[in-house]
Amino acid sequence: MNGNLLLRIAVSIILLTHSIFGMFNNGINDFGNLYLNQIGFAPFGVFLAWSIKLSHVVTAILFLLNKYVKLAGFVTIFVLLMGIILVHYQEGWFVVGGGRNGVEYNFLLIVVVLAIMYPNGYKRIKSN
Prior knowledge:
Elements: H1 5-24, H2 27-41, H3 45-65, H4 69-88, H5 104-117
Helix pairs in contact: 1-3, 2-3, 3-4, 4-5
């Protein structure tokens, strides 16, 4: 058993809950139409929103299966970084308390995804 199983389960739950509810309450379409399209991604906002959320579902499944973890991790980190750039940075650091909707949650998720991707740390391959 991989030593990061608990992290993989926790991140999978977060990614699934963050995605699945939006699939049933029109949240993904609203994000695409009312936000992404408005900031310059029209007419692809809804497609991008669905792509983001479906990537979260796929990543969650792959993390649970412990398959293609690095590929899924890179995609997820890219999505989280774009979320910081497009949505959260302008709100500051704090999600709650000292502010609202800031970057701290995405920052933590990025670090945890990196820990999942590299459970033994990053080791450079030496060539002879």
